[in-house]
Amino acid sequence: MSSRLATLAWEIWCRGSRSARLAFGCVAGCALINLIAQNRFSASDFGPGLFNSLFGLLMACSLFLMMGVFNYTEFSSTREWNGFPYRLFTLPLRTWQLVALPMFLGVVSVELLYLAWIKLVWTHDSIVRPEWFAVVLGAYMIFYQAALWSLAGFRIVRLLVLSLGGVSSIAVACLPMFDEVVPSPWFSETRLIAILLFLAFIAFIVAWRTVARQRCGGGLRRHWIKILLERITDALPRRAKDFSSPAAAQFWFEWRRAGLLLPACTSLVLAVIFGPFSWFCRNDPQATVDLLLRILLMPLVLAFCVGKAFVKPELWSTDFALPPFLAVRPLSAGEFVISKLKVATLSVAATWLLIVVFIALWLPLWADDTNLNGLMVKFRMLYPQSWQTIIILYFAGFVVLTWRCLVSGLWIGLCGNRSYYVAASLLQVITVALLLLAAGILSDTIDVEIRDNPVRLISIALSVTGWLLTIAVIVKLWFAVFSWSKITPRCAWQYIFIWLFATLGFVVLGILSRPWADTHRLEHLYVLAAFLIFPFARLGLAPLSLAKNRHQ
Amino acid sequence: MKFPSPSSAEAVVAVTSLSRRFGPKTALDDVSLYVPRGGVFGLVGENGAGKTTLIKHILGLLKAEAGTVRVFGLDPVVDPVTVLGNIGYLSEQPDLPGWMRVDELMRYTKAFYPNWDVAYAEALRAQFGLDPAQRLSTLSKGQKAKAGLLAAQAHRPRLLLLDEPSSGLDPMVRREILEAVIRTVADEGRTVFFSSHLLEEIERVSDQIAMVHRGRIVFCGSLDEIKAQHRRFILNFETAQVKPPVIAGALSVSGMGKEWAIMCNGARDVLPKIAADLGARIVAEQVPSLNEVFVAHAGTAAPAQA
Amino acid sequence: MQIHITSADGVPIYIQIVNQVKHLAASGRLTPGDELPPIRVLAEQLLVNPNTVARAYLELERAGVVTKRHGSGTYVAEVRTSLSKPDKIKILANRTDALLTEAKHLDVDLSEIIKLLRERDELMEKEIRK
Prior knowledge:
The structure holds three protein chains of three kinds. Chain A is mainly alpha-helical. Chain A folds into two domains: 2-215, no CATH class; 246-550, no CATH class. Helices cover 78% and strands 1% of the residues of chain A. The radius of gyration of chain A is 29 Å and the shape is globular. In chain B, strand 1 (11-22) and strand 2 (25-36) form a beta hairpin. Chain B contains ten helices and twelve strands. Chain B is an alpha/beta fold. By secondary structure, chain C is mostly helical. Chain C has two domains: 13-76, Arc Repressor Mutant, subunit A; 85-129, no CATH class. In chain C, 59% of the residues lie in helices and 8% in strands. Chain C is built from five helices and three strands. The relative contact order of chain C is 0.11. Classes of the chains: A mainly alpha, B alpha/beta, C mainly alpha. Chains in contact: A-B, B-C. The A-B interface holds A 230, 239, 242-246, 248-249, 252-253, 256-257, 323-325, 327-332, 550-552 and B 59-63, 77, 80-85, 87, 89, 91, 95-97, 99, 107-108, 110-113, 135.
C-alpha cells in the first residue's frame, strides 16, 4: 500500500514540480538577498523597509504557487466539471487514502515553505506568533482542497467560496491581534488554534464523504444558471425569418456569443453595487457627484476586461485558434471582423443606454443633487454658448472609448498566438506599473520642483506632451496607411469616413472645451489628442491576423 | 506507379508535390493527387499518416509550404469564399457549436450557400429524426454527425469532403453517411472525397482509392487497378525456413515452416524466378482484399515505392 | 429484388451483382419483362457506387440477360438468347473447367460430381415449380 501512495505522491510532484521549484526558488533568492544585504542595511531604516515589501510580495507569490501545485483537480468529460481526478477512482485504494494524501502533502509543503521563509529570510524581524500563522496556513490549505472537491459541481459557488475564503484567511490570521484591542477569551491563541484544527478535521471529513459519493456516481453537476438562461432564451421570441446575407448570419452568431456580455455585466453592477449605494447615499450631495463619476467610468473598466476576452476568435473559450466550424464558412476574414465590430457597437450602445436610463431615473428621483447643480451652474458660466455641445461630445467620447476598449485588441487576439496576446496584456500592465513606480520614485523631486519653479515645470511638461502626441499621431497615420492597404477599398473608405467624422467631433470638443484662461498651447494638444482617440491603424490589421490564423 | 493525372480542367482537386512539416515531423512528403470530377475518391491511411493534414490543405485551413493545392482551379487560401462556398465538409469530431439549436443551425448555414435546397434539407432533417428545437449539445454523437451531414449536404455542394465521418458511430449512422455519399455522386458532376479507416466502406463506394502512409502516397488508382497490381502468393519451400525469407520487392512476408505468404506489389513477373532461386514453388496466387493490401503497406517501415 | 453483397471473399462487387441477377432470372424469381430497379436506386439500396451498378447492368446486357429500353429502364430479357449452340457450349465449357480444376484440388471423383450436378438441378427445378 505504501508504494501505491508513494506513486501517487510522485505523480503530484511531477505535475507540480515546476511551480514547486519556482516557489522554493523565490525563497532561495530572497534568502540570498537577505544574506548579502543583511550586514549593509542593518543600520539604516531604508533598506529593511524596501526589502520587506519585496520579500512579502515574493512570499505571497510562492504561497500562491504552492496552492497551484495542490490544485488537485482534473477535467472530467463525463461530468463536465473540474473536480477530483476521476481516473483515480478505479485504483485499488480507499477513498480516505486518496483524499488524505494530497491534503497531507499540501499541508506539509506549505509548512515547509513557511518554515523556509521564517528561518531563512525573515531573520532580523521577528514574526509574532509564528505557530498561529503556521496553523492558519495549514488549515486553509485543507479548506481550499475540500472546497475544490466538494463544490466541483457548483462552479460559480465554488469561485465565490474560494475568493471569500481567501479574503477571510487574512481576516482570520489577524484575529489574535484583536486580543489587545477587545480582550476576549475567544481571541486567545490557543483557543483559536484548537478551533481551527477542529474545523480542518471537519473539512477533511466533508471532503472524504463528498469524494466517496462522487466515486459511486453521485454529486452531479448542477447547471442552475445554465438551465435558467436556456429557459429564458427559449421563452424569448425566436427569430423565424431567414438571414438576408452571410454577413447578417455571422452578425447573429457573434451577437449570440458575445453581444450580451457587456450589457449584462453593466446591469449587474448597476443593480448590485451602484443601485444600493445610491439609495444609501441619497442624502449626501457630494456622494452624488462621486457616484456619477464612477458610473460614467465603470463601462470603460468593464469594457477593458470584457475586451480581453472579446478580441479572441471565440469569446467563451481559452483557445486562440479559429474554431473549424467558423473557419470553413465561405466568408472572408474582413467580413468576420466587420461582424465583430458591429456586435461591439451594438453592445456598447446597449450598455450606455442602460446607464443613461439609470441616471435619468436616479438623478431626479432619489439623488441629492445640490452639489451637482452647483457644478453645472459653474460649468454653464464657463461655456455659455457651447455647454450642451460639450456635454454631448463628452458623452460620445465616453461611448467611443468604451468601444475602443472592446475592439482595439482585435489585431492581436485574432492572430491565434497565445504568447503575443499575453505579451500585449503584460505590456499594458507593466507600463502602468512602471508609470506608477516612476511617479512614486520621482514624487519627491517633482514636489520640490513644483514648489520652486512651477512655470518651468509646466512648460517642460507641455512640450514633452506635445512631442509625444505628435509622434504618436504620425506613427498612427503611417501605420494606418500600411495596415489598411490590404483591405478592400470600399470597406476602407467606409471606415475612413467614420473615423474622420468621429475625429472631427473630438477636435470640435477639444476646441470648445479649452480652459477659459488658456494659453495658445493647450489647444493644439487637444487637437492632437483628438486624432488618437478613435481606433484606426490597428483595426486594419485585424483581417490580416484572422487570415493568418485561418490559413496556418 | 503512375498517378492518374487528368487535365486540371477535369480535376476537382489538384494537389501537386505538396509537402508539410510540423516542427521535426514530416506530415506530408511530396504528395500529388488528382481527384477527377464526378466520382468518389477514397483516401485510406493509418492514424497519423497525414489524411487530415491533406484535407485541411484542400479546405485552405493549412497553407501549402511547398507545392500547390488547387480546388476547382482556385487556391483555397487566396480565394476562400468561392472555394468554401462549393464544398460541404463533415469532420471527424463534430465541432458544431453546442448552444445552437438544430433549426438555428440550418438557418445559419443556409445564409452562406445560395444553392441551399429548403425542401431537401427538411426531408433530410425528418429522415435523420432531428428535432428542430433541440440544442446541439444535447444530441448524441450519432445525431451530431447527422446534423453535420445535413449542414454539409443540403446545399448540394460540388465537392463533399468527409474526414473519417464514420469513426465511432453505430452502423445505422454509417449507413446514412454512405447513402449521402452515393446520393451525391449519383447527381451529375458532383464529387465526393472520403477518408476512412473502414476499408469495407471504401471498397464499396469508391471509384478511386489512394493510400497515404507516413506522408507519402503508396498507391492510387481504381480498385481494379489496385487488385491487379497486388497479388498474394503462397510459396512452398522445400526446407522449413526458420527466419522469414527475404524477397526483393515483397511488401510483406508471413507464415511459418514451409509455407509462406508473400504480398507483392507489381513484381509478379519476377517472382517465380526469385522463388525458384530460393528453392520454393508457387502453389497459389490470390487476389488480396483491400484490407490485406492496406495492412501490407502499413506494416512497411518505409513506404514502398512502386 | 433482393441482392446481397459481401466484400469478404474478394469477388468484385459488380460480378456479385451480375451473378445474383443471373441466378434470380434463371430460378424464376425474376420473370421476363420484370423491370430492374434504376441504377441510382439499386446503388442506394446496396450502398455501392453507382458506377459499379452501371457496370453490372452493362455486363448483364452484354450477356443477354437484360435489355435496356431507351429512357424507360432495364428489363429482364426473354430467355431465348441469340447465341448459337456452340457459343453457349463454349461459355459453359469455361465454367466446367473451373469446376473440374477445383474438384481435382479437392480430390473429388468425377462420378460424385455428376451426382452433385443431378442433385442441384433437381433442387433448381423444384424452386422454379414453386
